[in-house]
Amino acid sequence: MANPTEVDNSIYDNYGDQWYTAVDDPIALLRAENKVKAPWILKRLTKNSTILDVGCGAGFLSNELALAGHKVTGVDLSESSLEVAKRFDTTKSVTYQTADAYALPFADASFDVVCAMDFLEHVEDPAKAVKEFSRVLKPGGVFFFHTFNRNFISWLIIIKLVEWLIPKTPKNMHILRLFIKPRELKTFCTLAQMEVKEMIGLKPVFSSIPVSQIFSGKVPPQMRFELTPSLMTSFLGMAEKLGAF
Fold it and tell me: At what angle do helices 60-67 and 27-42 cross, to 10 degrees?
Protein backbone atom coordinates (compact mmCIF):
# COMPACT_ATOMS: atom_id res chain seq x y z
CA MET A 1 0.00 0.00 0.00
CA ALA A 2 1.31 3.45 -0.94
CA ASN A 3 2.39 5.69 1.91
CA PRO A 4 -0.07 8.65 1.89
CA THR A 5 2.79 11.08 2.55
CA GLU A 6 5.03 9.86 -0.28
CA VAL A 7 4.65 10.40 -4.01
CA ASP A 8 4.46 7.18 -6.03
CA ASN A 9 6.86 7.55 -8.94
CA SER A 10 6.64 3.84 -9.78
CA ILE A 11 3.34 4.45 -11.57
CA TYR A 12 5.20 5.70 -14.64
CA ASP A 13 6.76 2.27 -15.20
CA ASN A 14 3.36 0.85 -16.14
CA TYR A 15 2.15 3.22 -18.86
CA GLY A 16 3.84 1.78 -21.92
CA ASP A 17 2.42 3.31 -25.10
CA GLN A 18 -0.43 4.76 -23.03
CA TRP A 19 1.92 7.69 -22.42
CA TYR A 20 0.86 8.72 -25.94
CA THR A 21 -2.60 7.15 -26.24
CA ALA A 22 -4.45 7.19 -22.89
CA VAL A 23 -7.35 9.64 -22.62
CA ASP A 24 -8.80 8.41 -19.31
CA ASP A 25 -5.66 9.20 -17.31
CA PRO A 26 -3.93 12.42 -16.16
CA ILE A 27 -1.07 11.58 -18.54
CA ALA A 28 -3.35 13.05 -21.22
CA LEU A 29 -3.20 16.37 -19.35
CA LEU A 30 0.60 16.22 -19.52
CA ARG A 31 0.42 15.79 -23.29
CA ALA A 32 -1.89 18.79 -23.55
CA GLU A 33 0.40 20.90 -21.35
CA ASN A 34 3.40 20.04 -23.52
CA LYS A 35 1.72 21.79 -26.46
CA VAL A 36 2.30 25.02 -24.53
CA LYS A 37 5.53 24.19 -22.69
CA ALA A 38 7.55 23.04 -25.70
CA PRO A 39 6.91 26.17 -27.85
CA TRP A 40 7.59 28.42 -24.84
CA ILE A 41 10.98 26.80 -24.37
CA LEU A 42 11.84 26.64 -28.07
CA LYS A 43 11.31 30.40 -28.42
CA ARG A 44 14.02 30.97 -25.82
CA LEU A 45 16.66 28.65 -27.27
CA THR A 46 19.53 29.44 -29.57
CA LYS A 47 20.16 27.16 -32.53
CA ASN A 48 21.88 23.81 -32.10
CA SER A 49 21.75 23.81 -28.31
CA THR A 50 22.95 20.80 -26.31
CA ILE A 51 20.05 19.97 -24.00
CA LEU A 52 19.60 17.68 -21.02
CA ASP A 53 15.98 16.80 -20.24
CA VAL A 54 15.82 15.45 -16.67
CA GLY A 55 12.85 13.29 -15.73
CA CYS A 56 12.02 13.07 -19.41
CA GLY A 57 9.48 10.26 -19.02
CA ALA A 58 8.33 9.08 -22.43
CA GLY A 59 9.99 11.94 -24.23
CA PHE A 60 7.20 14.45 -24.81
CA LEU A 61 9.59 17.41 -24.56
CA SER A 62 12.84 15.69 -25.61
CA ASN A 63 11.39 14.53 -28.90
CA GLU A 64 9.93 17.97 -29.67
CA LEU A 65 13.28 19.64 -29.02
CA ALA A 66 15.04 17.11 -31.25
CA LEU A 67 12.56 17.80 -34.05
CA ALA A 68 13.61 21.45 -33.84
CA GLY A 69 17.23 20.46 -34.49
CA HIS A 70 18.71 20.45 -31.00
CA LYS A 71 21.08 17.81 -29.62
CA VAL A 72 19.08 16.23 -26.82
CA THR A 73 19.83 13.81 -24.02
CA GLY A 74 16.89 12.54 -21.99
CA VAL A 75 17.34 10.89 -18.60
CA ASP A 76 14.91 9.17 -16.27
CA LEU A 77 14.89 6.37 -13.69
CA SER A 78 12.01 4.60 -15.46
CA GLU A 79 13.58 2.28 -18.03
CA SER A 80 10.20 1.32 -19.49
CA SER A 81 9.34 4.98 -20.06
CA LEU A 82 12.66 5.52 -21.81
CA GLU A 83 11.91 2.62 -24.15
CA VAL A 84 8.65 4.33 -25.12
CA ALA A 85 10.51 7.61 -25.61
CA LYS A 86 12.91 5.93 -28.01
CA ARG A 87 10.10 4.41 -30.05
CA PHE A 88 8.37 7.78 -30.42
CA ASP A 89 11.56 9.66 -31.33
CA THR A 90 10.99 10.16 -35.05
CA THR A 91 14.41 11.79 -35.46
CA LYS A 92 16.19 8.80 -33.88
CA SER A 93 18.69 11.34 -32.59
CA VAL A 94 17.87 11.64 -28.89
CA THR A 95 20.19 9.89 -26.45
CA TYR A 96 18.05 8.25 -23.78
CA GLN A 97 19.58 6.75 -20.64
CA THR A 98 18.77 5.98 -17.02
CA ALA A 99 20.23 8.43 -14.53
CA ASP A 100 19.73 9.73 -11.01
CA ALA A 101 19.00 13.46 -10.93
CA TYR A 102 20.99 13.80 -7.72
CA ALA A 103 24.12 12.37 -9.37
CA LEU A 104 24.02 12.97 -13.12
CA PRO A 105 26.61 10.95 -15.09
CA PHE A 106 27.94 13.99 -16.95
CA ALA A 107 30.96 16.24 -16.55
CA ASP A 108 30.72 19.79 -15.24
CA ALA A 109 29.54 22.34 -17.82
CA SER A 110 28.37 19.73 -20.33
CA PHE A 111 25.12 21.32 -21.53
CA ASP A 112 23.77 24.62 -22.83
CA VAL A 113 20.34 23.85 -21.42
CA VAL A 114 18.81 21.71 -18.68
CA CYS A 115 15.06 21.09 -18.57
CA ALA A 116 13.05 19.66 -15.68
CA MET A 117 9.37 19.59 -16.57
CA ASP A 118 6.97 18.24 -13.92
CA PHE A 119 9.93 16.77 -12.07
CA LEU A 120 10.84 18.80 -8.99
CA GLU A 121 7.54 18.00 -7.24
CA HIS A 122 8.45 14.30 -7.45
CA VAL A 123 11.67 14.40 -5.41
CA GLU A 124 12.31 14.83 -1.70
CA ASP A 125 15.27 17.22 -2.10
CA PRO A 126 14.61 19.57 -5.03
CA ALA A 127 17.37 21.96 -3.95
CA LYS A 128 19.92 19.17 -4.29
CA ALA A 129 18.62 18.34 -7.77
CA VAL A 130 18.75 21.99 -8.86
CA LYS A 131 22.34 22.24 -7.65
CA GLU A 132 23.22 19.19 -9.74
CA PHE A 133 21.50 20.70 -12.78
CA SER A 134 23.64 23.81 -12.36
CA ARG A 135 26.80 21.71 -12.14
CA VAL A 136 26.27 20.22 -15.61
CA LEU A 137 25.23 23.58 -17.12
CA LYS A 138 27.77 25.73 -18.92
CA PRO A 139 28.22 29.29 -17.58
CA GLY A 140 25.51 31.36 -19.24
CA GLY A 141 23.46 28.22 -19.80
CA VAL A 142 19.75 28.13 -18.99
CA PHE A 143 17.57 25.98 -16.78
CA PHE A 144 13.90 25.54 -17.71
CA PHE A 145 11.41 24.21 -15.19
CA HIS A 146 7.75 23.53 -14.65
CA THR A 147 6.23 22.62 -11.29
CA PHE A 148 3.29 23.34 -8.97
CA ASN A 149 2.82 25.99 -6.30
CA ARG A 150 2.10 24.72 -2.78
CA ASN A 151 -1.20 26.09 -1.54
CA PHE A 152 -4.84 25.14 -0.98
CA ILE A 153 -5.94 26.11 -4.49
CA SER A 154 -3.28 23.85 -6.04
CA TRP A 155 -4.37 21.00 -3.80
CA LEU A 156 -7.99 21.55 -4.79
CA ILE A 157 -7.41 21.79 -8.55
CA ILE A 158 -4.30 19.76 -9.32
CA ILE A 159 -4.90 16.93 -6.89
CA LYS A 160 -8.57 16.69 -5.83
CA LEU A 161 -10.31 18.00 -8.96
CA VAL A 162 -8.19 15.78 -11.21
CA GLU A 163 -8.95 12.75 -9.00
CA TRP A 164 -12.65 13.59 -9.10
CA LEU A 165 -12.95 14.17 -12.85
CA ILE A 166 -10.52 11.41 -13.88
CA PRO A 167 -11.31 8.38 -11.68
CA LYS A 168 -8.35 6.41 -13.05
CA THR A 169 -5.88 8.91 -11.53
CA PRO A 170 -3.14 6.82 -9.87
CA LYS A 171 -2.89 6.98 -6.09
CA ASN A 172 -0.26 9.46 -4.84
CA MET A 173 0.58 10.78 -8.30
CA HIS A 174 1.05 14.14 -6.57
CA ILE A 175 1.54 15.05 -2.90
CA LEU A 176 0.92 18.62 -1.77
CA ARG A 177 3.89 18.80 0.60
CA LEU A 178 6.26 18.30 -2.36
CA PHE A 179 4.82 21.23 -4.31
CA ILE A 180 7.17 24.22 -4.43
CA LYS A 181 6.44 27.90 -3.92
CA PRO A 182 7.96 30.21 -6.56
CA ARG A 183 10.07 32.02 -3.97
CA GLU A 184 11.47 28.69 -2.79
CA LEU A 185 12.48 27.73 -6.31
CA LYS A 186 14.16 31.10 -6.74
CA THR A 187 16.14 30.39 -3.58
CA PHE A 188 17.15 26.94 -4.83
CA CYS A 189 18.44 28.56 -8.02
CA THR A 190 20.29 31.31 -6.16
CA LEU A 191 22.05 28.73 -3.99
CA ALA A 192 23.04 26.89 -7.16
CA GLN A 193 24.51 30.05 -8.74
CA MET A 194 21.59 30.56 -11.10
CA GLU A 195 19.31 33.57 -11.42
CA VAL A 196 15.66 33.19 -12.32
CA LYS A 197 14.95 35.44 -15.30
CA GLU A 198 11.34 34.61 -15.98
CA MET A 199 8.35 32.89 -14.41
CA ILE A 200 4.89 32.52 -15.89
CA GLY A 201 1.81 30.54 -14.95
CA LEU A 202 0.10 27.77 -16.87
CA LYS A 203 -3.60 27.07 -16.55
CA PRO A 204 -6.27 24.92 -18.19
CA VAL A 205 -8.73 26.58 -20.52
CA PHE A 206 -11.91 25.21 -18.98
CA SER A 207 -14.01 26.58 -21.84
CA SER A 208 -12.15 24.18 -24.17
CA ILE A 209 -13.83 21.23 -22.42
CA PRO A 210 -17.22 20.37 -23.97
CA VAL A 211 -19.91 20.36 -21.27
CA SER A 212 -21.00 16.90 -22.36
CA GLN A 213 -17.54 15.54 -21.58
CA ILE A 214 -16.87 17.14 -18.18
CA PHE A 215 -17.94 14.00 -16.30
CA SER A 216 -16.85 11.46 -18.89
CA GLY A 217 -13.75 10.47 -16.93
CA LYS A 218 -11.68 11.35 -19.99
CA VAL A 219 -9.55 14.26 -21.16
CA PRO A 220 -11.18 15.53 -24.37
CA PRO A 221 -8.82 16.08 -27.32
CA GLN A 222 -9.99 19.71 -27.53
CA MET A 223 -8.74 20.55 -24.05
CA ARG A 224 -6.10 23.28 -24.04
CA PHE A 225 -3.79 25.02 -21.61
CA GLU A 226 -2.62 28.62 -21.81
CA LEU A 227 -0.08 30.92 -20.19
CA THR A 228 -1.20 33.27 -17.42
CA PRO A 229 0.50 35.94 -15.28
CA SER A 230 -0.73 34.14 -12.15
CA LEU A 231 1.67 31.67 -10.51
CA MET A 232 -1.06 30.44 -8.16
CA THR A 233 -1.07 26.81 -9.29
CA SER A 234 1.20 25.71 -12.14
CA PHE A 235 4.21 27.68 -13.34
CA LEU A 236 7.00 27.64 -15.91
CA GLY A 237 10.32 29.38 -15.51
CA MET A 238 13.79 30.02 -16.84
CA ALA A 239 17.00 30.60 -14.87
CA GLU A 240 20.50 31.45 -16.10
CA LYS A 241 23.74 30.09 -14.70
CA LEU A 242 25.77 33.08 -13.63
CA GLY A 243 29.31 31.76 -13.63
CA ALA A 244 31.67 28.90 -12.95
CA PHE A 245 30.17 26.49 -10.42
Answer: 30
Query: How many CA atoms lie less than 13 Å away from 21 in the CB half-sphere?
Result: 6
Whether the CB-CB separation of 23 and 221 falls below 8 Å is answered with yes
Q: Which residues pair with 97 in a beta bridge?
A: 75
CA–CA distances in Å: residue 203 to residues 17, 73, 234 = 26, 28, 7
124-167, pLDDT tens digit by residue?
999 999 999 999 999 999 999 999 999 999 999 999 999 999 99
CA-CA distance, 227 to 81, in Å (whole number)?
28
Task: Report the pLDDT value the prediction gives residue 3, as an integer from 0 to 100.
Answer: 59
pLDDT in tens, 135-147: 999 999 999 999 9
Please state the domain extents for the chain. Answer: 9-241
Look up the CATH architecture of domain 9-241: 3-Layer(aba) Sandwich (3.40)
Spell 49-62 as b/e; 16+ CB within 10 A means b. bebbbbbbbbbbbb
Say yes or no to pLDDT of 171 above 70: yes
All residues at 6 or more sequence positions from 183 whose CB lies less than 8 Å from its CB, including other chains: none
Cβ(198)–Cβ(238) below 8 Å: yes
Q: E strand or H helix at 21, and its extent?
A: helix 18-21
